[in-house]
Amino acid sequence: MTSITPKITPIYQTSVFKFQDLDELDQYFQDTSSRYLYSRNGNPNSDELVNAINQLEGGAGAVATSSGMSAIFASILAYCQTGDHVLCAADIYGGSAALLNTELSRMGITVTYVPFEQLYSLGQFVQPTTRLLLAETISNPLLRVADLRRLATECHNLGLKLVVDNTFATPLLTKPLSLGADISLHSVTKYLAGHSDVTAGAAVAADPEVAARLKQIGVFYGLTLSPMESWLAVRGLKTLRLRVREHCHNAQAVAEMLQQHPGVRAVYYPGLPDHAQHALAKEQGGGMFGGMMSILLEDDQEAVSGFMRRCQRFPFAPSLAGVDSSLSYPLGTSHRALTPEQQRDLGITLGLVRLSVGIEPAEELVEDLRQALG
Ligand SMILES: *Cc1c(COP(=O)(O)O)cnc(C)c1O
What we know:
By secondary structure, the chain is α/β, with parallel strands linked by helices. Helices cover 37% and strands 14% of the residues. Pyridoxal-5'-phosphate binds next to helix 3.
């Protein structure tokens, strides 16, 4: 028989693995990492993804999940049970807030939102049952940057865990665990996979026991990732370094043009010197600022719709971080579920448009936006 040694891990498109006899089954239960049993518990493709992301984040172990949402869910459950309380940065992905408000609340886990300005003085928000703070390295949609080292110190002084959603930054800009965070999690759907063709997530822990707990939650709640999606994410991940470099380069060019444009009232991009956390972003991101930004147009629905219709290279598609550019509208999509008061407090108004700058030639993106602004 010809020996087959593929360079790339094949897709193990199987839900279950075979055992010769009971000895082999015993072998498995003596060391569950020695072979595979059932794909929900583990699969060569999801393990390859887990190992790659764990290494990038410098973790002690990780779980690959069916989505970013399930990574957030698993991370909160790793530390919390009924009766517990969590803190959450007010500037947070809309889905995270919806999960906390509508689902985790039913499980008896309560939440208090902390305004950005008060993230480093958490004492006033802490209750005896508070377990953790959930925050984003670079927030959505206003691109505010959290000082993770300071945040970790503040959390640990109060006996809290720090759970960081590192989706916007990627581990190439920032490795939260190295700055003291306890869990770093991702919507792998975004930069890590990078091609807008897979939904996936991952949560990485600094402590091996927490990593084992994340894995167990993944298996028991059925949150783990399928072989095909894992394989696609692994393939995307191989070019992360190249992609992120181009995303950053293009976003800087786009932001600098937009800042000069009379049709744009504000540009929120950490790479601009007048961004409120520019110095921190530069230090924490190793000189890279990512590919996401938001811009403020006229607070007028017709003006925004006209801009969207004229954009050729930025289709309105409510996601982000693909190699192809896109734009989104926080008020109507990610932050739709917030109360009008919350939306106003976060600066999410009628004119706010979020750009995900892709890896196309920078001058083509700049030119397209210029013509769309008129
Ligand atoms: C998209 C996103 C999520 C949710 O991830 P899904 O893969 O869509 O479940 C969580 N956090 C951030 C910052 C995101 O952008």
